[in-house]
Design brief:
Elements lengths: L2 E3 L5 E3 H10 L7 H4 L1 H17 L5 H15 L2 H13 L4 H15 L1 H17 L17 H13 L2 H8 L5 H16 L6 H15 L3 H14 L3 H15 L1 H14 L3
Antiparallel strand pairs: 1-2
Helix pairs in contact: 1-3, 3-13, 4-5, 4-6, 4-11, 4-13, 5-7, 6-7, 6-10, 6-11, 8-10, 11-12, 11-13, 12-14, 13-14
């Protein structure tokens, strides 16, 4: 590996330096001074070795990492990565859609700080808020449109969920259709294939939700995100979510995508 020797003696590979600069141009890292060995290991791994295994473009990769950071509840890193996302062409609307998509999965209590962090970064970049609305439903249409897109992603299993649900729990199924899918999945700003990748990234980072991870692996496959793309996603999240969540996600992938 060819290394670029910096004056602070942190040996960052040329590829890692280039990929880092793409996200954080002219960034002066204080951790290179206080924790040089950690930065050397992490940057060479996350910005060289891991990216070398990817076929995803920089923008898509950052979108998925940003989603996983919300799932990890790492608001300080999220602020930094929102700036990086803007640097590589992720639009303000796309960033907001990543954030809004997280709400039904992490809950508003966890999403709240990320809303404020997003607004702070965007305001500092001169982006005027609120952004153009992306909602496509209203109180009268949200259930029907939500159910339609739910079935488009998951097929006949949705009918089975309704049939198997105890009567006193049917309201949860209706909430899933009207709220999770009708209020969020029907929004403009990102297409359904990207939205499913975002959802899977959030779930992987959350941990302890293997049943939902499997469901959304199948959902991704159903909308055209192949096993190769999902393996790439899991690989790119590794430095940000750690090995336990990565290995759990890999196990789920291999159990669902058997071909």
């Amino acid at each position: 590996m060819t290394n670029t020797q910096h004056k602070d003696s942190v040996r960052i590979s040329e590829a890692a330096h280039k990929n880092h600069e793409e996200l954080f141009p002219n960034h002066k890292s204080t951790l290179k001074v206080t924790d040089p060995e950690l930065i050397e290991v992490f940057d060479n791994f996350a910005f060289d070795e891991v990216i070398a295994e990817s076929k995803l473009d920089s923008k898509t990769r950052v979108v998925l990492i940003l989603a996983s950071i919300i799932g990890s509840q790492a608001v300080s890193e999220y602020r930094v990565m929102v700036g990086a996302a803007l640097n590589v062409g992720v639009t303000p609307i796309e960033i907001k859609e990543i954030l809004y998509q997280s709400v039904p999965y992490v809950g508003m209590a966890k999403a709240f700080d990320f809303v404020h962090a997003t607004n702070e970064v965007m305001t500092s970049r001169g982006i005027q808020l609120p952004l153009q609305g992306q909602s496509t439903t209203n109180p009268e249409t949200r259930y029907d449109k939500g159910l339609a897109i739910q079935k488009a992603v998951f097929g006949e299993s949705i009918d089975q969920m309704y049939e198997r649900s105890p009567k006193d729990q049917l309201h949860i199924q209706r909430f899933l259709s009207a709220n999770c899918f009708g209020d969020y999945y029907t929004r403009n700003g990102v297409d359904i294939k990207v939205r499913e990748l975002i959802t899977l990234s959030i779930l992987i980072a959350l941990g302890g939700v293997e049943s939902q991870i499997k469901g959304h692996i199948q959902g991704n496959l159903n909308v055209g995100n192949g096993k190769d793309i999902l393996l790439d996603l899991i690989t790119q999240l590794l430095p940000w979510v750690g090995y336990p969540r990565t290995l759990n996600a890999l196990k789920c992938l291999n159990e669902v995508a058997t071909k």
